[in-house]
Amino acid sequence: MSTIVLSNLHKRFGDFTAVRNTNLTVSTGRFVVLLGPSGCGKTTTLRMIAGLELPTSGHIHIDGEDVTALRARQRDIAFVFQMFALYPHMSVRNNIAFPLKNEGISRREIAARVESAARMLRIESMLDRKTGGLSGGDRQRVALGRAIVRHPKAFLMDEPLGTLDADFRELMCLELRKLHNALNATTVYVTHDQSEAMAMADDVVVMNQGEVLQSASPHEIYHFPATVFVGNFIGSPPMNFLPVDTGVEAGAEQVTLGGAPVPVPRSEASAAKALLGIRPEHIRLDEHGPLRGRVIADEYLGSHQVLVVDTSLGIVRVRVGKDDGRAAGSPVGLSFRKEHTLLYDAASGKLLPGSARQMVVNGNGDGNGKGGAYV
């Protein structure tokens, strides 16, 4: 399998910029997910890697070779589309074998590869059936089989589970990850569904308005979002962002929220206007807490509950135990776990460097010792 490197990749359609100066490395054997809302540039990026779109500027290297100007068929890439793009009049066997026949591979080799892919995807019993009568999930397996038999340098997948129902999509997430592990494949996968991304990816690349905002492991993306957008996009419920009263000074270990002091990890930078970011599970119900509010909703989720609290700083979501709910209208106090608070520049939306970065690099707190997210 192969390493894919994008260097200053830029794509314009007339006056519209779809992808802005993107730099990204997909290492050999990694499962990388491009994640973001509709129109963020993720599919355009994938199509440029595949050779289905040519970049306006920038370069694409696969295994060290500059393939920027090469046609799709010259890149040895397998592309799996959201719509299965199968031939309904042909059998499953012939659909899977079709790209190999076009390459002039011997019948014996084609038969062996088709049988091997069918066993891996557990569709051996369907090989002689027409694809037109198969379920959506089985047709997606056939589409994957057609990609697998080619033994490509990399697999590119554009929302391949988007047409499946929720339960089957969850099952196919696991199947795709198992398949990736079995093949030791280099995979680039596009989705707008954060649950898919967090379940399958080695690395998540969050995009918005044509730009890569953060590329890191699911763990780092969740616990140390690099921007306010990433914190809002990842997590259900998303990260809370609360306005700091007087900004942040470099070296500060305390900020003021609603007139009350709140301890925070030491900041290495200043910001005239700042936001304190914190996940719902890192807020405590505390009658002596610095922030006061009133519960307006209590969402019961079995293993836990999410309280929606109206405060002077806006709505705050708090994750509590399954037996710790509060009735609507109940007054509550809130305190914050210092080691999990993050500070953001309100103007740029970017994370202020400080203790959060040190936790990632040095392996303290929730960073798991994986550095590079904020360098």
UniProtKB/TrEMBL annotation:
Molecular-function GO term, any one: ATP binding
Keyword Translocase listed: yes
InterPro entries named among the record's database cross-references: AAA+_ATPase, ABC_transporter-like_ATP-bd, ABC_transporter-like_CS, ABC_transpr_MalK-like, ABC_transpr_MalK/UgpC-like, Mo/tungstate-bd_C_term_dom, NA-bd_OB-fold, P-loop_NTPase
Gene for this chain: sugC
SMART domains cross-referenced by the UniProt entry: AAA (SM00382)
GO biological process: one example: carbohydrate transport
Gene Ontology CC annotations of this record: ATP-binding cassette (ABC) transporter complex, substrate-binding subunit-containing
Keyword line: ATP-binding, Cell inner membrane, Cell membrane, Hydrolase, Membrane, Nucleotide-binding, Translocase, Transport
Protein name: Trehalose import ATP-binding protein SugC
Entry EC number(s): 3.6.3.-
Top EC class for this record: hydrolase
Species annotation: Paraburkholderia solisilvae
Segments forming domain ABC transporter: 4-234
Pfam families membership: ABC_tran, TOBE_2
